[in-house]
Specification:
The complex is a heterodimer of chains A (187) and B (117). With 187 residues, chain A is mainly beta. Chain A has a domain of 111 residues: Jelly Rolls (Sandwich). Chain A contains 1 helix and 11 strands. In chain A, the strands form 2 sheets. In chain A, strands 1, 2, 3, 5, 8, 10 and 11 form a 7-stranded mixed sheet that branches. In chain A, strand 1 and strand 2 form a beta hairpin. Chain A is globular. The relative contact order of chain A is 0.33. Chain B is mostly beta strands. Chain B has a single domain, classed as Jelly Rolls, CATH 2.60.120. Chain B is built from no helices and 11 strands. In chain B, the strands form 2 sheets. In chain B, strands 1, 2, 4, 8, 9 and 11 form a 6-stranded antiparallel sheet that branches. In chain B, strands 3, 5, 6, 7 and 10 form a 5-stranded antiparallel sheet that branches. The chains are: A mainly beta (187), B mainly beta (117). Chains A and B meet through loops of A and loops of B.
Chain lengths: 187, 117
C-alpha cells in the first residue's frame, strides 16, 4: 500500500496541493467555512504572466493598495499561491482591501526580498484566493533611493470546486473529513 | 566570501564623481525605511583616477562628523584601482558610507551588503 500523501496548507518545502481531487475542502470566506468537493487541480508554474510590477517607487515611497487582478479566480474555483519579492521591497498582503494578512496585535509581517533566504520555498507566505474575494498588495520602498520597478512573482495551484450545499458551518453540519483553506483574513 | 550567516542583500552605489578635494561626500545611502534601519558592510571598491596621485578614505559622516573607518587607500594616477571583499575588513556600519579623496574628479563606486530584513 502506498502511503497517503500528507497534504495541508502552508506545508514547508516546494509547493504541493493542499488536497487530492475528490476530497472536501472548507474555504474560509466572510468568517465562515464554505464546503466544496475538489473536482480538478492543475499547477500554475512560476512564469512572467504571474508577475506583478507595482512600478517605480521613490525613496521611501508607498504604492497604492493594488488589486492582484492577475490572481483573480473564476466562480467555483480557488487558487493556492506563494510569492517571491524580486526587488528590494516590503509588501503587505490584504484580503479584502482593508484586511491585512500575516498580522499580529500591533504589527503586520511583510513579504520582502529577504524572505527567500530563510524561507526559500515561500511556505510562510502562502495564501489562497477564492472566486472574487480578491487579494491586494501594497509595496513600500524602504531604501533611500528610487526603485525603477517593484516586482512580485507568484506560483501555485488551481482548484476547480463542486459546491456541497448539504454542509453548513453556521449550522454545524460538517463533513467528517475536510481540509481548511484560509482564503481571507481572520478578523 | 563572507561566512556571516545572516540574511543580507548585495547592493551597489551609483558612480560617484568626487566633487571637491578633501571633503567627505556620500558614497552609499543605506536603507532606513521600516521599523529598523539596515546595517552596511563594505564589500568592493572600484575607483578610477585620471587626475593626480591621491588617496581614498572611506568612513561615515559628512563635514565635521566625518569618521574614517578603514585605513587610507592609495589611488595610483591613470589607473583603475580595485579592492574586493577578501581584502576589506568586515566592518559593519549603521550609517551611510562616505568617502573623500584629496583631489576632485576621481570616480568611485562601492558594492555593499545590507543586513536586516
Amino acid at each position: 500500500m502506498p502511503a497517503l500523501p500528507q497534504l495541508y496548507p502552508y506545508k514547508a518545502g516546494p509547493i504541493e496541493m493542499v488536497v487530492m481531487p475528490g476530497e472536501i475542502v472548507g474555504v474560509w470566506v466572510n468568517k465562515v467555512y464554505n464546503f466544496f468537493r475538489v473536482e480538478f487541480i492543475e499547477g500554475y508554474p512560476r512564469s512572467e504572466p504571474l508577475e506583478i510590477d507595482f512600478g517605480a517607487l521613490a525613496a521611501g515611497g508607498v504604492s497604492a493598495v493594488t488589486q492582484l487582478a492577475l490572481l483573480e479566480m473564476p466562480d467555483t474555483e480557488f487558487g493556492q499561491f506563494r510569492a517571491e519579492v524580486l526587488d528590494d521591497l516590503s509588501v503587505i498582503l490584504f484580503q479584502g482591501r482593508a484586511d491585512q494578512r500575516h498580522k499580529l496585535f500591533t504589527r503586520v509581517a511583510t513579504y520582502t526580498r529577504f524572505n527567500a533566504i530563510k524561507d526559500p520555498c515561500g511556505h510562510e507566505g502562502e495564501f489562497y484566493v477564492h472566486e472574487d474575494n480578491f487579494a491586494f498588495m501594497q509595496a513600500q520602498n524602504q531604501t533611500d533611493y528610487a526603485l525603477t520597478q517593484s516586482r512580485v512573482a507568484f506560483w501555485g495551484f488551481r482548484y476547480v470546486l463542486d459546491p456541497l450545499t448539504e454542509y453548513s458551518w453556521k449550522d454545524k453540519r460538517l463533513p467528517t473529513a475536510w481540509t481548511r483553506v484560509p482564503a481571507t483574513a481572520h478578523l | 566570501m563572507s561566512n556571516d550567516p545572516r540574511p543580507m542583500v548585495r547592493k551597489s552605489s551609483a558612480i560617484i564623481t568626487i566633487a571637491a578635494g578633501a571633503t567627505p561626500e556620500t558614497l552609499y545611502q543605506r536603507t532606513t525605511g521600516g521599523q529598523n534601519p539596515r546595517t552596511v558592510i563594505l564589500r568592493k571598491i572600484l575607483a578610477y583616477n585620471a587626475v593626480a596621485a591621491t588617496t581614498l578614505m572611506i568612513g561615515t559622516g559628512l563635514g565635521g562628523a566625518w569618521v574614517q573607518r578603514w585605513p587610507t587607500l592609495r589611488l595610483v594616477n591613470n589607473m583603475d584601482n580595485e579592492w574586493t571583499e577578501d581584502m576589506i575588513p568586515e566592518v559593519e556600519i549603521g550609517a551611510d558610507l562616505t568617502g573623500q579623496t584629496n583631489v576632485l574628479g576621481v570616480l568611485v563606486q562601492v558594492e555593499i551588503d545590507e543586513v536586516g530584513s
